[in-house]
Design goal:
Order of helices and strands: EHEHEEHEEEHHEEEEHHHH
Largest sheet: 8 strands, antiparallel, barrel
Structural class: alpha+beta
Strand content: 25-35%
Radius of gyration: 18 Å
Distance between the termini: 44 Å
Shape: globular
Oligomer: single chain
Length: 278
């Protein structure tokens, strides 16, 4: 059983199946807001949403373990596009649902008005750390259709993609029907480096903080309004880019400077702390 169910309680909340969730709140195009909050505040959020929402339940489980592998080019072009706030940025990852062994290859791009567009391809979990030929064709298609890259550039990027970092976390997912929104609550987020050329595997963890993500069609949801009322504001955090900045302190990371030096100050490796203490 995922550890998250032992600390965050959703008992008594109405449930929703995965099929219903995908039908009622697929939200592959949405406005994302992320918050880093202490565990007690996450429980208060869940309790506030309980009368208004439905929690995802599969085979009696309401918390699920996820693993993602992020891919980048040798010169980390997708990371640098995000770090330098380029509008036409993108991410490529696999996401594996560890409780069910489902896996998808996903491409995330930026749409209009800061919206996020996510497209996914069913994938074998055995291929979660590599881009297959079919996966490469999917990446090329998405980069071209999203007007991110020209066809020749898209093909070149897809060929160069390799795994650079992995994440693991436990997640609770809720649907807010009135707001047509999703809320995810992630605990135990950890990052692991996949740089085989480095001196060894580097890891980092978010500790006891919880990552709350709200995914709304346009206007803020009840979850956003509650968090704002408690003094929480959206934080700049990307599971890929923030993890890379933590594990590779030489990378440009001004975009996430406040998050790295405040909320995640205790998560940074000693090399990162020494570099910024100078």
């Amino acid at each position: 059983m995922p550890r998250h169910t032992l600390r965050l309680r959703t008992h008594g909340m109405a449930t929703i199946s995965l099929q219903e969730l995908n039908t009622d709140a697929d939200l592959l195009t949405r406005i994302d807001r992320k918050y880093l909050i202490p565990l007690p505040d996450a429980q208060a959020l869940i309790s506030t949403l309980a009368p208004h929402g439905r929690v995802l339940q599969i085979d009696q489980l309401q918390a699920f373990s996820y693993a993602s592998t992020y891919f980048d080019t040798p010169d980390l072009s997708t990371y640098l596009l995000s770090a330098r706030k380029r509008r036409r940025s993108f991410k490529v990852r696999t996401r594996t649902y560890l409780d069910s062994d489902l896996c998808f290859l996903e491409v995330k791009t930026q749409g209009s008005r800061e919206s996020t567009v996510k497209t996914r391809l069913p994938y074998s979990s055995a291929d979660c750390n590599r881009i297959t030929r079919e996966g490469g064709d999917f990446v090329i298609e998405r980069l071209i259709d999203s007007h991110i890259l020209a066809p020749s550039q898209a093909a070149q990027v897809a060929q160069m993609l390799s795994p650079v970092i992995m994440t693991h976390y436990d997640r609770i997912t809720m649907h807010l029907p009135q707001d047509e929104a999703r809320v995810t609550v992630d605990a135990y987020l950890t990052w692991r480096d996949i740089d085989v050329s480095g001196p060894g595997t580097r890891t980092s963890s978010i500790g006891d903080l919880i990552v709350v993500e709200t995914k709304n069609p346009s206007t803020p949801s009840l979850a956003d309004r509650f968090l704002w009322s408690q003094g929480h504001r959206p934080a700049r955090i990307s599971k890929y880019a923030t993890g890379m900045a933590l594990l590779h302190p030489g990378l440009p990371a001004n975009k996430w400077h406040r998050t790295l030096t405040h909320e995640l100050a205790g998560s940074r490796p000693s090399t990162y702390q020494a570099r910024h203490a100078a």
